[in-house]
Amino acid sequence: MKKILLLSDTHSYIDERILAYAEKADEVWHAGDIGDLAVTEALQKVKPLRAVFGNIDDHEIRKEFPLNNRFICEEVDVLITHIGGYPGRYSPAIREELRANPPKLFICGHSHILKVMPDRKLNLLHMNPGAIGKHGFHKVRTMLRFTVDKGKIDNLEVIEMKR
User: Fold this and answer.
1) Distance (Å, whole) CA 130 – CA 116
2) Calcineurin-like phosphoesterase domain location, by residue (predicted)?
3) Which of 3.90.940.20, 1.10.287.130, 3.60.21.10, 3.30.930.10 would CATH assign to domain 2-162?
């Protein structure tokens, strides 16, 4: 079993509260708009990190992290990208890959809106952790944590922080 901390849209912001949650996880996953490599460096000092770059990320971050990150974690096929859309309204950049070879868990960021929902047509779970950074229109900063174990995604928890 692995405990996952899922975050996105840090926009160069990291603080001790985020790092404290990271310390309690086995892995941290970042769905893009990192903003500054200092964010990922701080997270990597605490736990293993899987990340993708987002639309605001510069060439240094794009050299460090891919546009899409697909991997298996505890028998769960995971695909992370930054701009992904939602079930029934996926981004054209990822739509065909999702239809041709859907993962069990599809993660994106970008919207700053926390949303977890099943896609019954593609038989996958979609997650967007919202935004944990301070830049953007969101009123509450959010992250998700959950467990992955033997092909199951469980114990989902929303973490909210004041702006």
Assistant:
1) 10
2) 3-150
3) 3.60.21.10
Residue 114, token pair as written in the block: 């926390």
Give CA separation, 29 vs 6, 88, 89, 92, 121, in Å. 5, 24, 23, 23, 25
Helix (H, G, I), strand (E, B) or coil at 39: helix
| 21 three-state secondary structure | helix
Structural tokens at position 131: 């935004």
141 and 130 in contact (C-beta within 8 Å)?
yes
Q: Would you say 133 and 15 are in contact if contact means Cβ atoms under 8 Å apart?
A: no
For residues 98 and 81, give the distance between their C-alpha atoms in angstroms, rounded to a whole number: 11
Report the alpha-carbon distance of residue 46 to residue 93 in Å, rounded: 32
In Å, how far from its chain's centre is CA 77? 14
pLDDT digits (tens, 9 = 90+) for 110-153: 999 999 999 999 999 999 999 999 988 899 999 999 999 999 99
